[in-house]
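Sample 1 of the test manifest.
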Amino acid sequence: MSETRIDVNALAEQLLGPYAEVRKASRARAARPELQRDPSLPMDAHRARVLEQLGILVQEQAVQRAFPTEFGGHDDHGGSLASFEELVAADPSLQIKAGVQWGLFAGAILHLGTAEHHAQWLPDAMSLKTPGAFAMTEIGHGSDVAAVATTATYDEDTEEFVIHTPFKAAWKEFLGNAALHGKAATVFAQLVTKGVNHGVHCFYVPIRDENGEFLRGVGGEDDGLKGGLNGIDNGRLHFTNVRVPRTNLLNRYGDVAADGSYTSPIASPGRRFFTMLGTLVQGRVSLDGAATSASKIALQIAVTYANQRRQFNSTSDTEETTLLDYQRHQRRLLTRVARTYASSFAHDDLLDKFDAVFSGREDTDEDRQDLETLAAALKPLSTWDALDTIQESREACGGSGYMAKNRFNQLYSDLDIYVTFEGDNNVLLQLVGKRLLTDYASEFRKLDTGAVARYVAKQVGSTALHRFGLRGVGQSFADVSDERKSANFFKDPANQRALLTERINAKVVEVAGALRAAGKDPVKAATAFNENQDLLISAARDHGQLLRWEAFTAALAKIQDPATKEVLTWLRDVFALSVIEDDLGWFLANGRLSMQRARTLPEYINRLLARLRPHAQDLVDAFGYTQEHLRAEISSGIEGQRQDEAMEYFRRLRASDNAPVSEKSLRKSGAKA
Amino acid sequence: MSETRIDVNALAEQLLGPYAEVRKASRARAARPELQRDPSLPMDAHRARVLEQLGILVQEQAVQRAFPTEFGGHDDHGGSLASFEELVAADPSLQIKAGVQWGLFAGAILHLGTAEHHAQWLPDAMSLKTPGAFAMTEIGHGSDVAAVATTATYDEDTEEFVIHTPFKAAWKEFLGNAALHGKAATVFAQLVTKGVNHGVHCFYVPIRDENGEFLRGVGGEDDGLKGGLNGIDNGRLHFTNVRVPRTNLLNRYGDVAADGSYTSPIASPGRRFFTMLGTLVQGRVSLDGAATSASKIALQIAVTYANQRRQFNSTSDTEETTLLDYQRHQRRLLTRVARTYASSFAHDDLLDKFDAVFSGREDTDEDRQDLETLAAALKPLSTWDALDTIQESREACGGSGYMAKNRFNQLYSDLDIYVTFEGDNNVLLQLVGKRLLTDYASEFRKLDTGAVARYVAKQVGSTALHRFGLRGVGQSFADVSDERKSANFFKDPANQRALLTERINAKVVEVAGALRAAGKDPVKAATAFNENQDLLISAARDHGQLLRWEAFTAALAKIQDPATKEVLTWLRDVFALSVIEDDLGWFLANGRLSMQRARTLPEYINRLLARLRPHAQDLVDAFGYTQEHLRAEISSGIEGQRQDEAMEYFRRLRASDNAPVSEKSLRKSGAKA
């Protein structure tokens, strides 16, 4: 073990982020058995338990935080999400069902409705008197919300909207609270009045009576058993000419007067639609946080086990090697610890940005777009990483990792859906990619085409310089005699930043060039876009990694303790260099790294991992979860006890006269004799 | 759609491999509901159901195939595995519980026991009169079987072995049939006689009486709920001075006479141990097959859905784009179709090799070692790939992929354990890596050290040539004017083979060089080995990919139909080039590819995928599973019906006078006016 230790307490406090106190309070709640999942419960009992748990949250005033003070809330948007995120440690079903009720259903009333709606429906939504479903997704249109087929047609005679499902593909699907508990729903439908379709709007629609029976015209089905999250009663809903009063239109961004005339504060139907959706970004933000927490939990279990478990003896006849001393095991777990730190710091930035926008502190159109891009870039990475981290952690614990009592499969199955809900990850990254293209294009907004052409020629020239490896060769000649120079290059944050940034720029330039070449014919443009889809999505992913790198690097600056700072710097380097290693072919093929430098990279990462190894336990302990959160037998110390007992047995045996000699050693000494 | 179609029937027949008839019969069985999993059953009922299903297999003579004709078997080793593998389509729990009973428990009696043992125990093991556990793994020693701590000490006075568990880490763990159904166990323990430990041997030990009560000295625990495979009653066993007759030692490879003297046909304790373990290789072989089948099932579901599901409109106002027309979706699914083909053909070779050894046709020590290496190289790849393929397939089906009725999560959870049982994947790959090192070293066995030094110098020279990119630059100058030349390079199988082979050789040379430099001091040698562990494991993985490539390429030669041959050649190219793309950084950094060629690779793969796209459904239909095997609502055509109904609705609406106009188009025409 190294002599210097990191300051675990200070680091733990930093990792709690900008809402540390709220997060701690929520973790304390998640540590209580009555709010946790009982893995023995079948679906029906699990659903009932989670509904009860929502009631406990209401009683303890744990859900009001995001709402206006006039309704007993605190107008604390960032803190509210931090609080909900931590419920993932109790049961992801609880986190998501709470998200459905207070984030989506009540959130739609709050953000899409106006004062009258708030007064009328928010109190009962907040108190759970009205459990509600968020009826946006249709079975035929998952991520393509603009294309939902449910209609809300205004009837001037009765001053009502007629909500209607025209065919089976338009059934609302996968809605939490729809199968059993929901009494009302916020329904997204094409608003049609006076023969004009004004696009998707949201309506407050009662769906069940006091006895839990569907109201007239409303029907549905239970989704039944799912891959996970079985504490939530997901289901389908459909509407057959269901009439609601005109005032049930949540009319903040678009209204219909009694005479059927439509008005909106946002002229462009496209921008109006994205503005409405943008108010619901909190779902994505909180999934980013919850997924990062799940990764922390998995790693805290797996690293603890890897520090106790011994397997095979390589350097000693009497003591087997601890798993985490194996290079491969370090590769498997410590690179993921580094990534999880990056994800955690990036999430804190996202929460800050979210709070700035929703509190109104920084709430321009551009701020909202930045927030949405940030969420769309980070949520895919953290949710995919959570699955990858949980799975690798489970495998790193071998057969024990497969036992339900060690938690991994349960977490994996619950988190699985995070990668495709609140926006399919690939669709979200494509949104980010389009934003990158727009930003790139906006650099030329005021230039004439001649200037654009010159810029492109310059880019091509620069790319050609890279392509022919001239930079690369330069690196090669400079470095070839000294591996240390190569290491110095890689650990320089300016170089890390340059590599991570140039990769995005170069890919975006490439896609933009292909789109420009395709011209304005819609079919040709769509074909060109599709032919570059994979590249554009990879640029978006790279953008997310850069955001994480920047957050991690900014977090380093805040660390006081020198030992902690040094170790965390290694960890940031492992994160950055693993990201580069994962795409090493690109950096080489495009002349951003020399062959010589590229060859030294894996070994340099290995050396950093070996340096981090003595700090591994401290690094995961700083995540701050307790045994009540981990709830895995193998993280309890049981493995260390077993190993100690075994070693003690053999120690005594060797000291006694009864120890059998091995045939192998007899043969060896026989051969010598 | 392309005009030429592949010959699906002929391809399906080829994919069934060398045991086509046996495989079909087993698939017919797997299509019967009474042999399938009922997802609604909780653990206890699921366990009881699978036990019953084993009884059905016995009644239908579906389990005897591998056993000697004198016991009613067919001595058909390869066919037996093919038959068991297909049970994964019914329920992985059924496949694995059958594997425990007839592959492991009865297999140990057959392969480690001798004639008397066969006569005494095989009939009841075959008929399931004696359900049995295979008690090898200990909680403290997963993959390190040589280190199990259970002892079997010979007592000359009573002519008995005393089976004993000295401490908690030595409890036998994760054993199928141990929690409930097992009446006996084949127990692996350190054989001690006359004060000498002769290493791990296997003993037949009765564990429960007719009433299911543990016999005296035997104890255990139920493992309870697992991440999956909950139709199997896994549990722990421990032994407190349990006495069994001397003749309960399964004595094919080592025996103890009444007077306690030990004899073995294999002098070296190490080689004896590996020979014993080698007889149990069938577990790994069958997991390779079952995992490949699971990938086929997942892809058949996901590709079918992707061919029906539409989402977003890019080129048409009235028709949305089919998922599989998106480049990213092709990347996600079709690269995995290619890999699954490669895995399927490689598995056929593995089955052939397995049958050759176990039938005695080709059964030298070297054949056995080759078989073990082959199994250890392929099983990790196919089991990891199965998890990756199932997960990507589930995500490609969005929220629908998460519903239990669409099967993915169930398959994933069951297959999860395949990556760490019958040998942890990383441990298996390390074995392969060591074999690669041995083979490399054996090239020098007869050379003096001077020659070795010269060889190494030559290698270093050649590597240096690569390192300075001289080859690469040569490629660059040759190709730079013509992308087609680059494509011709990549599709040439000789180049594919050379790239895939050189990568392994170069990595092995590098590791061997580091080990040689470390010298013979055990601690230094172990340190050097650990510092190269990740590289060595990656070389082993590369070796597995080469084996798959060779199997795929050999399979192409057998295809008669020209259209099928052409399409399958593209598919082989996608497999090979995806493997190269995944490790592109290595090929560039080590001068095996020029920058120019590397840059053209992703686009060339994309073009191949677009060419394959019209054949996607045929390619997965050739896997040959029916709706009875897939059992996923979304593979039934339901999505196509929904889409057709929706399109028909809009067609009619457009043709009528009632179609609302969109505000967007009004604004556009308004702007024009």
